[in-house]
Amino acid sequence: MGGSTATGIRLPKNLLAQIEEVAHARKRAKATILREAVEAYLEDWADYQVALDRFNDPTDPVLTVEEFYQPLGRKPPKL
Fold first, then answer.
1. I need a surface site. Which of 2, 15, 51, 55 has the fewest CB within 10 A?
2. Residue 18: how many CB atoms within 10 A of its CB?
3. What pTM did the predictor assign?
4. CA torsion angle 27 33 35 38 (round to 10)
């Protein structure tokens, strides 16, 4: 992970209270909970960007549910 740098943010009281509850339940520092939350958000954001790039790429094929399951030798689940 390399070095770290301190930063400050302003949070609504109710959000800070939730962070404190999670930190207490997990026996971790608030900074750990916040760092993990930011890391998870950034991973989700990167996944979203990949999905958006693929969605907007006209050369990337879009499969129907049936086409997706066909090579697997399975039928799609009934919803």
1. 2
2. 13
3. 0.71
4. 160
